[in-house]
Design brief:
single chain; 237 residues; mainly alpha; 73% helix; elongated
Length: 237
């Protein structure tokens, strides 16, 4: 399964007054830049400075939570998203992001609950459907996962990860023909998508096309996917 992007609150540019000390707006813009540059420790440092002066910033707690999540500090990440929700329970973003943190912390049921709330607040959104679908898949609810990936594709049919995810669900449901079609679609969008080659190879093998499937697994291996090597050893002579 493949996760997608986090969701940030929009930054509104304001006319800044001249000051020797950076304004809160300037600090937040700098934190946003650092987040895009994957300087997560810098984000934590700057958001901490902002919160020293104003603790009622739901958007800052949301950003800080993302940084902690990227650093695999699930406890602090969940705390930040929860504080953001406490400050504004009608903003879907921290629910969505906390759902990702719960998922990474192997708390799938809590993740599903947050994704459900996020969808209720936001309405239909491809990223939320995709990540909820991944959670459903992990929980073994393949029918719900398939429905969510169908929804996500209706919004974003050019995303190879969603095609791959749906293909993997169909693979588990033994719809090999459907899995092959979806995984080939993912590869047509991204020729170097190793996980899609792995799923496609397995679907081909399970549908009786062992030789073709083993060749496809080899492509996945050549793209650096070590997991595909284990499948090749198991199914290919």
């Amino acid at each position: 399964m493949n996760n997608l992007s986090y969701i940030l609150a929009p930054i509104v540019l304001l006319i800044l007054t001249v000051s020797c000390r950076p304004s809160t707006q300037e600090l937040q813009l700098e934190a946003t830049r650092m987040l895009h540059e994957k300087n997560y420790k810098g984000v934590i440092d700057i958001t901490g400075k902002i919160l020293e002066h104003n603790t009622a910033r739901t958007d800052v707690y949301n950003m800080r939570g993302i940084a902690f999540l990227e650093l695999h500090n699930m406890e602090e990440s969940i705390k930040c998203f929860s504080k953001s929700i406490e400050l504004d329970s009608l903003d879907y973003r921290p629910y969505y992001n906390r759902g990702k943190a719960f998922f990474e912390n192997n708390e799938v049921e809590k993740a599903l609950k947050d994704y459900n709330i996020a969808l209720k607040l936001k309405g239909e959104h491809p990223d939320i459907y995709t990540n909820r679908g991944i959670s459903y898949f992990t929980a073994g609810n393949y029918t719900s996962a398939l429905n969510d990936f169908n929804k996500a594709l209706s919004f974003d049919p050019a995303d190879e990860k969603i095609w791959c995810n749906r293909g993997n669900v169909k693979l588990v449901l033994t719809d090999y023909k459907g899995a092959i079609k979806d995984l080939k679609k993912a590869i047509s969008i991204n020729k170097n998508y190793a996980k899609a080659y792995q799923g496609l190879g397995l679907a081909q093998i399970f549908s009786g096309k062992t030789s073709e499937g083993c060749e496809t697994l080899e492509k996945s291996i050549n793209l650096g996917n070590k997991e595909a090597l284990n499948f090749k050893k198991k199914f290919c002579k």
